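INFO batch 0412 | record 1 of 1 | parsing
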Amino acid sequence: MSNANRTTLSDEWTSLQAYTLAVVCVLVGLAGGWFFRGSQSPVSAAPGASARAAAPGGITAEQMPSPEQMKRMADSQAAPLLEKLKSEPKSGELLANIGNIYYDTQQYPAAVDYYQRSLNVQPANTSVRTDLGTAYWYMGNADKALEELNKALKYDPNKPNTLFNFGIVKWQGKMDVDGAVAAWQKLLETNPNYEGKDKVQQLIAQAKKHSNIKSGTQAKPLPQ
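INFO prediction complete | emitting tokens
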């Protein structure tokens, strides 16, 4: 789950810690479904992939660190940036990078805090605001997720990954198939070369199928 805004691992961090976090991010990505980071390029994950699948080196979900260990790992990686923050308290990029560390280790309340502080400095950063909305979703707050994603779209109405995540929350969080499909169709119309085009079309088909099943009608094929 690479991110253009993400800081590199600190040299003070051990290679084992770095490797473990990388594996965790792979498994979180598989378990997290379709979501994309604000500035991340789409990377296809096989539908139905399980977090129990073996990760590089044979590590499985059962061998992953506990939440407490994950937090310690995040705190360890964030420490150099937090120290630097003392002399650059208004650095939006630095605050966002710290937020990314906590986001990737599933420490979502901490990620939200740093993303919000970053946005206080750079409110028009749609990548950070998209990540903030997605973090709220993972915390179980669909309303706040949509609020932040909507704000991001006001700054950049055609931002593809924001539209993508907006559709996911509309569908899975609000059962609003029409709203989800509208967001995804806008994504395809305004970003014809979107790398995740096939994935978006698949989601549109799935959402329409579920809607038709619920209403008792037969799903219609997508136009070619």
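INFO post-check: The first helix runs from residue 15 to 31.
INFO record closed
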